[in-house]
Every structure is written in C-alpha cells, then in structure tokens.
Amino acid sequence: MADFKDLDPLLHSQLRLAVMSLLVSVKSAEFVYIKEKTNATAGNLSVQIDKLSTAGYIEVEKSFKGKKPLTTCKITKKGLQAFEEYVNALQQYIRK
Question: What's the angle, vertex CA 46, arms to CA 19 and CA 14, rounded to 5?
Fold first, then answer.
C-alpha cells in the first residue's frame, strides 16, 4: 500500500481542492463565482483562498467593480503542477 504522505495536505481539504479544480478550467474566477460553485461561506472561502495564495498556488487580485470590491483568483504554474501531482497520486492509490 502506498504511503498517504505523498498527497499534498494543502490540496487534501475538500474546499481547497474544489477551488483548485474550478481554477484549473478557467483563466480566472471572481470570488462570488467560486463561492456559488463551492457553496462555501464567504468567511471560510476567504481563509482557504488565503492559504492557497500563501502557498503560491493561486494569485489573488483585489480591485473594484464600480464601488464594490472585486476579488479575482487564478491558478499559478506552481499551483497547476501541485494539482496535477495530487491527481496523479490519487490515481496511483486507486490502481493499487
């Protein structure tokens, strides 16, 4: 049996994995879109986005749309690589 330490603990969280899965398939996504797609609370999503950003897996851009704050996220090369490695590790566990 393979050792589960190979799985990136940062991506092993359901919400962070959902965020990364969304961002893999789009150029960028607004906070509200990610919140709707993941059914997360704004507070929890903010914390998880912060963790992904701190790790360098996503870039977060804060701006304004009119007078409303706008947070946009996009996956980085480092994040894409980490996501692909995570998926490959899961596939290896499934095959065993």
Answer: 35
Does residue 4 have a pLDDT over 60?
Answer: no
What is the second-level CATH architecture of the domain 4-95? Orthogonal Bundle (1.10)
Q: Where are the domains of the chain?
A: 4-95
pLDDT (tens digit per residue) in 19-62: 999 999 999 999 999 999 999 999 999 999 999 999 999 999 99
Closest CA to 39 of 25, 19, 53: 19
Contact 11, 26 (CB under 8 A): no
Rounded CA gap, 8 and 10, in Å? 5
